């Protein structure tokens, strides 16, 4: 029965491979587990992952680092496109526009400078200018994480900004990216619960009705190591696949 369910999931789900271009980041967001500021994926390693997953629909270039900091990010995009994939990028907006991206997503929790700085980000004026520039070229999405440093006012202001530039909006409740084995788990869990209370997110919130990671969706970090999913991106999950031990503690 389990095998049948996996086959059905694969048939009904748009396949995706998510690849972390770099672990380096120029921001220090309070709702992120990013700690390691070193490491870019090797292009030949990247080519190998694309070859391994040559039938997937979407290549998502995102991880714990800022993907556009990879020195060959445009080549990575073009290689995926040349292989017949759609490309999704989720960026903090600090870097200039890159070409050939099908799904251009900007992380934006607030447009208030003081609150933006409190989330661990900087250069809001430049970020907003980059978003406006890209929105004038193609359709963009704003990923608004409902985090512990923002309120409903911030969410509504992001919505209005999106409407002004013709962008779509994702509302994403803050997530706990590590389980009990990680030293940051208690801290992350408390901050997430605080964020949920502030934004009116149900304590029973679940992101997925049916998870397809390891079946039709796959994640690789900048070293080329597979991980169980895009929530379990930190190094203690390196080389692991979804299992009862890992998925049983998943908050989503």
Quick one: CATH superfamily? Aldolase class I
Annotated CATH architecture = Alpha-Beta Barrel
**Main β-sheet, in a few words?**
8 strands, mixed
Order of helices and strands: HEHEHEEHHEHEHEEH
| Total count of helical runs of at least 4 residues | 8
- The N- to C-terminal Cα distance equals 23 Å
| Beta-strand residue fraction | 15-25%
Radius of gyration: 18 Å
Describe this structure in words.
β7 and β8 (226-227) form a beta hairpin. An eight-stranded mixed beta sheet has the order 6-5-4-3-2-1-7-8. The chain contains eight helices and eight strands. 33% of the residues lie in helices and 15% in strands. The longest helix has 15 residues, at 185-199. Residues 1-12 have low confidence and may be disordered. The chain has a single domain (2-247), classed as Aldolase class I (TIM Barrel), CATH 3.20.20.70. The chain has helices spanning 2-12, 43-52, 73-82, 113-118, 124-135, 152-165, 185-199, 244-247; strands at residues 16-19, 58-61, 86-91, 103-107, 140-146, 168-173, 217-220, 226-227. It is an alpha/beta fold.
